[in-house]
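Title: Comparing notes on inverse folding

I've been comparing how different people in this forum approach sequence design from structure. To keep things fair, I'm posting one structure and asking everyone to reply with a full sequence. Here's the target:
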């Protein structure tokens, strides 16, 4: 059985506790080469292809596409063709999940599995014996989240894992046993009118969408937002962009705004901060995130040290990050950190809006389209291109005067672009 190799749920970053197996790229019986892409995995922060670390044949799939499991969970088995089905089953039944250490290196289980149990129940048995005390509850993060969603008391669930650890399957089994009584109660509920067939479609949230929902709710509940709005004269910046584009530079308005934001953070370094409980982290470099819409939801890649980058270099980096972000191919460190996010809906014809802060960042700038308006120049009415910008600030880190100073610095940078374009 030394030829049997496990495929496990990887861990990308210290905060990752579970992942969703989005798709298998190989079928049972397919040959697998070392380094070959065999599956897609999505965590709360990233989606990526996973390559095989072994070669052989995919002999068994343990976790189906679409399932979410803890890191270290056995997903499938690679072995040579000489390995018997009995050996494969014994390996699966006796497999212990990988334990990850603090330095991200997995602690592998023994190469030779322990003998398989004589019989394995089809599903974990729900608790019917003495309930565990609160101190005795030992459950996976997935199980805890599922229990919270289903309203299951974990102290009443008997864990089927090593040392009595409660898994998501244990929670599902317990909830299913209680389902009959709940279904009867639900059937008697006449408060809500029954939905007509075909009236709506049930769409399962992706891991990314669940993360977005959780983080935005937490932000609005825990971060004291306040908002400052200014109108920015865009004629000079749009003129500078047109000149640079005529010289061959591929620049968007967003690229120019991102660079202006980075420079304004250098002009007002007190605003270049993250909020962390009892302390602020003030950064030397301007690491500015920008919002990218994807099919799975909004992501915010970060351009690091944006104040030092030439516009053409910055624009190329933004395009690369956006393209890989839409394809789900960003590394975790490419969308973590930053002190400010730039969110631009001007390309959709939006004039103005306010955005939700992405903690621990202290601010987010929401900009609309640059539109022609009547402005006053030298005491005379004239037509100018104006953009509305709303800065959402975390009042724990940035007060009103500081936010206003930063917007003044931004306006100066935007209205005098020849100094940095």
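Reply #1:
Here's my take.
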């Amino acid at each position: 059985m030394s030829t049997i190799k496990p495929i496990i749920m990887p861990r990308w970053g210290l905060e990752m506790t579970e992942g969703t197996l989005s798709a298998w790229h190989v079928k049972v019986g397919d040959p697998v080469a070392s380094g070959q892409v065999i599956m897609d995995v999505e965590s709360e922060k990233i989606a990526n292809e996973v390559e095989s670390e072994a070669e052989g044949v995919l002999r068994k799939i343990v976790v189906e596409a679409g399932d979410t499991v803890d890191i270290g969970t056995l997903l499938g088995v690679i072995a040579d063709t000489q390995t018997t089905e009995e050996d494969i089953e014994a390996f699966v039944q006796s497999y212990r999940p990988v334990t990850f250490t603090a330095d991200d290196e997995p602690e592998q289980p023994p190469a030779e599995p322990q003998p398989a149990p004589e019989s394995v129940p089809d599903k974990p048995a729900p608790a019917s014996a003495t309930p565990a005390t609160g101190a005795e509850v030992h459950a996976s993060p997935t199980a805890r989240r599922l229990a919270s969603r289903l309203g299951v008391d974990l102290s009443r669930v008997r864990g089927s894992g090593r040392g009595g650890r409660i898994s998501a399957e244990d929670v599902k089994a317990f909830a299913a046993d209680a389902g009959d009584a709940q279904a009867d109660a639900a059937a008697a509920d006449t408060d809500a009118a029954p939905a007509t067939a075909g009236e709506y479609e049930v769409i399962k949230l992706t891991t990314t969408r669940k993360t977005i929902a959780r983080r935005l709710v937490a932000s609005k509940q825990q971060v004291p937002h306040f908002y400052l709005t200014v109108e920015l004269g865009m004629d000079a910046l749009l003129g500078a962009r047109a000149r640079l584009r005529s010289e061959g530079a591929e620049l968007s308005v967003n690229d120019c705004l991102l660079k202006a934001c980075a420079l304004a953070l250098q002009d007002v370094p007190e605003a270049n901060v993250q909020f962390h409980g009892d302390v602020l982290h003030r950064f030397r470099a301007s690491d500015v995130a920008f919002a990218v819409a994807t099919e799975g939801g909004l992501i915010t890649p970060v351009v690091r040290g944006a104040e030092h980058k030439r516009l053409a270099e910055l624009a190329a980096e933004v395009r690369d990050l956006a393209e890989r972000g839409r394809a789900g191919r960003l590394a975790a460190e490419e969308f973590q950190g930053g002190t400010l996010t730039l969110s631009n809906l001007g390309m959709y014809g939006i004039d103005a809006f306010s955005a939700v802060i992405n903690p621990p960042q202290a601010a987010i700038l929401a900009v609309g389209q640059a539109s022609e308006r009547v402005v006053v120049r030298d005491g005379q009415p004239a037509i100018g291109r104006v953009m509305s910008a709303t800065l959402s600030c975390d009042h724990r880190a940035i007060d009103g005067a500081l936010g206003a100073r930063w917007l003044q610095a931004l306006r100066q940078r935007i209205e005098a672009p020849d100094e940095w374009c």
